[in-house]
Amino acid sequence: MRFTRRHPLLTAVLLCALAVLAARPADGPHAPGHGSASGIGAEVARLYEEAAAATERYEAGRREAEEQRARAQRLEERLDRERREMTGLHEDLGRIASSQYRDGGGLPLTAHMLLADDPEELMRGQRAVRQAEVSLDKAIDRSERAEARLARDEAKAAAAWKRLEKQNTELVALQQGIERKLEAARWKLQGQADASVAAGACRGAVRLDQPRTRFTTHWVAPVETYELSASYGSGGTRWANRHTGQDLAVPIGTPVRAVGSGRVVKVSCGGAFGIEIVLRHAGGYYTQYAHLAAVAVDQGDRVAPGQWIGQSGTSGNSTGPHLHFEVRVTPEAGSAVDPVSWLARHGVSL
Prior knowledge:
Mean pLDDT: 78
Oligomer: single chain
């Protein structure tokens, strides 16, 4: 009370400021249920990149492991052939020794020559046998060295294969951990989107650290990979009339790309489309990206082909996570054209 009596003007100013703050709409970065304006969306994008990198490392490791396993199998087959060949050589050497024993017993060469009808023929035979023995000994020696070398190589390939299999198992565990974090972050992001739609006020752009990708074409698909859940012109109980766009089923938080260069003419966070973005392109056409979980652009921004403009979700009248992509001749609903044929004219298959 003492403060009030001494500073009546300051008290009035403070009361007015509090009244203004209380009357402000909940559309700022600290609106109820919104959380950080950039935290969760950026986290989802970062986890997407980590999951993609882990998947890439796993796929590379899996291919390398398969190559090492195939190499180990090839070496094992060669080792088996080498061992069979060595067995045959030993058998040949044994047959030569048996033949010599049967023909001459244990008599020395001099005795054989004295008893032989043709000593020269006997000498030629002995030389041939000796040459065969030497050749077989050399072949056996080569085969033993080859067998030892193949056994070492096969052991190394098998060890490398097992090591890579262990690394891949660890990568799978890492990838699963990232996926669990990503799933939790996705639904947290969607919760913020639902709060924005309920309030009818957008949080503002969440600037994402987009990887440096230079597209060689002027037009791209709105998402990198997807499953078609509803096509343009399809009927059903979900729509009052025919469906006005392509529904591309993607997980919550999937980066959504501008299909071509243009300007952001609308960012909205209420109504049946939930969080939506509308772009104007050259030639007077417009593209709409709806049921988003977050936006990465503000109204008036210029965008380039393939630029991330938001993150997919399931806001508004949506039966599940997907991107509703629409092409229009005006920025408003009711002027849609077939997006598949429109993109096809620009060289993009959707």
